[in-house]
């Protein structure tokens, strides 16, 4: 059990979770752009671009973001 907790605490792998009305992003390096129709992130492997309408950050911790709004497209570019 303690190993599971330790793995959770030390987890630094990029995560993107899409829900019906929001998107959760964890373990990103930095936010590249923040607009109401486009939010982009830099990760260890490349760039993530979230497009939509009325996008806003509801929760912002050191490396976690919860985005709400109407998401229309998510682009993943791991070639950078």
Provide the succession of SSEs: HEEEEEE
What does the overall shape look like? globular
Low-confidence stretches: none
Strand line-up across the major sheet: 1-2-6-5-4-3
Distance between the termini: 37 Å
Strand segment count: 6
Helix content: 10-25%
Structural class of the secondary structure composition? mainly beta
Radius of gyration (CA) equals 13 Å
Content of β-strand: over 45%
- Report the biggest beta sheet as strand number plus sense, adding barrel if it closes: 6 strands, antiparallel
What does this structure look like?
It is built from one helix and six strands, in the order H-E-E-E-E-E-E. Helices cover about 10% and strands about 60% of the residues. It is globular, with a radius of gyration of 13 Å. It has a six-stranded antiparallel sheet with strand order 1-2-6-5-4-3, with no helix packed on it. The protein is mainly beta and about 80 residues long. A hairpin with a 3-residue loop joins strand 3 and strand 4.
């Amino acid at each position: 059990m303690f190993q599971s907790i330790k793995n959770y605490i030390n987890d630094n792998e990029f995560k993107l979770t899409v829900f019906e009305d929001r998107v959760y992003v964890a373990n990103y390096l930095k936010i590249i752009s923040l607009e109401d129709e486009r939010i982009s992130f830099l990760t260890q492997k490349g760039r993530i671009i979230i497009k939509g309408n009325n996008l806003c950050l509801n929760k912002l911790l050191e490396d976690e973001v919860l985005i709400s709004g109407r998401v229309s497209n998510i682009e993943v570019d791991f070639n950078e």
